[in-house]
Amino acid sequence: xxxxxxxxxxxxxxxxxxxxxxxxxxxxxxxxxxxxxxxxxxxxxxxxxxxxxxxxxxxxxxxxxxxxxxxxxxxxxxxxxxxxxxxxxxxxxxxxxxxxxxxxxxxxxxxxxxxxxxxxxxxxxxxxxxxxxxxxxxxxxxxxxxxxxxxxxxxxxxxxxxxxxxxxxxxxxxxxxxxxxxxxxxxxxxxxxxxxxxxxxxxxxxxxxxxxxxxxxxxxxxxxxxxxxxxxxxxxxxxxxxxxxxxxxxxxxxxxxxxxxxxxxxxxxxxxxxxxxxxxxxxxxxxxxx
Length: 290
Description:
Order of helices and strands: HHHHHHHHHHHHEEHH
Low-confidence stretches: none
Largest sheet: 2 strands, antiparallel
Number of helices: 14
Mean pLDDT: 95
Strand order of the largest sheet: 1-2
Strand content: under 5%
Distance between the termini: 14 Å
């Protein structure tokens, strides 16, 4: 380890990372609150969304650590075909099971809406992989905070701590009028926050078993993409221009229940302490020492 450029950062790397991620994202995104919808506010929002990886790189550098060693995780793709199937398949499986349950209980879905353009799915996935959850977030949340917290807490606790930080990092998006978050109903908001915590555990599980930020980028992007595969019945979700909260609640609770089942199975099989049956990434891993 090289000499730290700022000792406080080396003593409190996770706190420094969180402060940096919030500051970068919130300060750059903030002007969008005052703008009419156009390219300009969206550019600010998406540049600002890179707060987590920017902060992780800066904190790594300020500690005198190797930014290259930290960034190497982003390109780690040789993790075994099982993990690639998991990254692409688990979000889709959650939607398939959710749809099946909603059909069985007479929920607001229409199986005839199942036909989704492959081109649309590809575009949404690439968008998610790059600027909506993947590259702009995961090198920070899982690629930096998770290994540091793994060394201090159980992996499940670490993932939930990240879940809190991750959820509140999104706060400006709930106030900027042009973002989807600002239009969430109460049920959407509650479901979104609960979903963040569940997804954080699943992403930690994937990262701890592979040491690959690329895998969690793909898994995160697929979790966002899979929602377009849910065949909602539009006339049951919106009636006379008003969102039907009970219908939204039915879909939200069902999907969260399926996600919760995945989390329970993961924790039960792999254990809450490491979410893995192998040695998990810690600070030494980020330094390239193992």
